Amino acid sequence: MACQTCRLHARSMLRSALGAGVAAAPSPAARKVATSSAPATVRSTTTTTRIQTARHFSSSSPRHILGLRDSYRVVGASERLFKVCAKPADYRITDEERKQDRVQKRDDGEEIGKAKDAENAWNKTFGLQPSFSTWSHVTMLHLYLINARLRCFDRDEYRNWSQQLIDHFFFECEKKMHLDHNITSSALRQRYLKDIFVQWRGLLLAYDEGLVKGDAVLASAVWRNLFKGDPHADPRALVAIVGWIRASLAALEGASDLTFAQQAAEILEKPVDVFWTRLEAPFLSDQEGGDKTLPQTPQQVKAKAAAADKVAATL
């Protein structure tokens, strides 16, 4: 009796013959020959299939190997690029200050630290306080500029770069919550991280809208996100930041894809207060023959506004 494989093979041969228009059924002798030769045919076909489907290292596509290498390259390059984005408004709160209860707080309860670079433009020139909110929004603004340029990449490459940068950002956010702000509850940190992610998504839409609709809308987005809608924010700071955003995007657009990480770091490391200086130059030139009083800094403007509010409250 023939095995199951032989019977299946014989049936397939019979169907092929009927499909080709063979009316007469095969003779018993022919059927016996076909049945006896079926195992050899099956073994030959199986052997041929195995030979054809065998994979060798030499025949592997080089793109698969380079793709793995590129993934590790993106991890390292994105980490270096993120450090450039996180540096401008970085701050710290020491354990000694916390133990001695010397940590200052804003009116809304947010803790204020000390800027690692006391001369940075974001805190000194623009009047932003060194806090987690300021650091996160300045960092997200830098990440937005990079993200806008990454959209010119291929879809998979863009997703890889974008995801790596976002991962670095949220790892650093959680680290600051734990070390600088003493938030030891993992559940509480995760809740804050979800809020930051919502802010990141809204920030992308707000800045995209500003780029499309004009500088006034872009300045409004910067004022809402970076300055928290502070009514005492200096308009000159908004103008300087908008100019820096436009100039940085233009420079990033001209960067090569092959050396993007290095060129992007050099572009973002350029000082933003250059645009503030350009705004002050006309005022200083007008004062050469008259009053030599320099324009007020945002801190002075806020101090005067607070004093005026106190006087108004006493009336």
TrEMBL record:
Gene Ontology CC annotations of this record: mitochondrion
Domain of life according to the entry: Eukaryota
Domain Ubiquinol-cytochrome c chaperone: 125-263
Pfam families with a match to the protein in the record: Ubiq_cyt_C_chap
One Gene Ontology biological process: mitochondrial respiratory chain complex III assembly
Record-stated family: Belongs to the CBP3 family.
Stated name of the protein: Ubiquinol-cytochrome C chaperone
Organism this protein belongs to: Cordyceps militaris (strain CM01) (Caterpillar fungus)
